[in-house]
Amino acid sequence: MDKPLLPTKGVIASQYVLYFGILGIFLPYFNLYCFHLGFSGFEIGVISAVRTVTTAFFPLVWGALADRYQIRKPLYVACSIASTGIWALFLLTTDFLPMLAITLCYGTFYAPIIAFLEAFTMDHLGTKKKRYGAIRAWGSISFILTVILVGRVIDAAPIRIILVLILAGSILQSFLSTQVPGPTGLRTKTAASGFSLLTRRPVLLFLCSAFLMLVSHGTYYGFFSIHLAGLGYGGTFIGFAWALASAAEILVMINSERIFMRFSLQRVLVFSFLVAAFRWSVLSWAESGTIILLTQLLHAATYGAFHMASILYIDSLIPAPAKTFGQSANNAVTYGLGMMTGFFLNGVLYDWVGVQTLFGLSAVTAIAGAGLLLVGSSFSSSGSASIQAGKSSR
């Protein structure tokens, strides 16, 4: 057997580095690229929504197959390679309909990558899952460096260069995906009954509230860069703003074990919702670069703390044979269905009401998510959700 190129922790960290490095190009700049092609707000929203609808559906399919047939690693490698090949097709067209079709095909295979990676990480950490943030922080570091460097690049070169950069990163990620370790220990196969887990009250209430949290992020992820460009800020500022947000989330992630030793997962989640509502409220009126950058520091709570608590919370609720499906369901409902809904609604409303009003609506949505989580926990029989969260935070 060939010797692995990196130790297990290094392999997993490298996947986070490449995945979020690619995301650091795509998330801030792909919609801006579409904007420069002359696409309308509606067309940008549709492309974003189509990509996320695949993230809402296909992680469940891939996750169920991975757990049932114990083929998580082969599927991970196959989806990495297939999505890379499909991305290359973006180099061949600048028309809306072909790009929409490519987005659909790309998302089909790209969809399960992060959920599978989270499951690999949970397996690797075993009983030390509260250290998740220390590994995940490598992705945020990569995101920071990428958005800063690419921001400077697109100030000096055609923005189309982002397509080539993403392709190069995807090729490297696909190659290293073959080094990811398979599940540890002997696992029993699980059938489609994994879907029944989603009807359990603690799981259902959490997923519904998390869905609203990601809907509230639709304006930020879909139109924040466009909003900054409209205010007169250049690519360097835009890249720095995104990087600052990731820098803030890193501080939370590297201290994840300390945070979850002190606070329950539910408290961290509710706090994240409230900070999100405040952040979007400020962005609904702020035009000062200083104020905008200060709101980016709140990403530590609205993404960093929320994301870690979500991964650990769903892991605590799902039995071992269905861990891949559990993470896939979490990713599908939040970063899939939630982001899809947020992108689509913002795309429809952008040309009518403008981005500042959309940020105001995002704040209301975040408040609704916090309310659902709080009210839902009071109806959980014997405080089941709180008990599970407490077990995970001890």
Report on this structure.
The chain has 394 residues and is mainly α. Mean pLDDT is 85; it is low at 379-394. Helix 14 (299-317) runs antiparallel to helix 15. The longest helix is centred in the C-terminal third of the chain and has 31 residues, at 323-353. The chain has one domain (8-181, 198-393): MFS general substrate transporter like domains (Growth Hormone, Chain: A, Up-down Bundle). The protein is built from 17 helices and no strands. The radius of gyration is 20 Å and the shape is globular.
Overall shape: globular
What is the CATH architecture term?
Answer: Up-down Bundle
Number of strands: 0
Based on CA atoms alone, the radius of gyration comes out at: 20 Å
Sheet with the most strands?
none
User: What is the averaged pLDDT score?
Assistant: 85
Distance between the termini: 39 Å
**How does the helix and strand content classify structurally?**
mainly alpha
CATH class: Mainly Alpha
Tally of discrete structural domains: 1
Per the CATH scheme, the topology name is Growth Hormone, Chain: A
Tally the helices: what do you get? 17
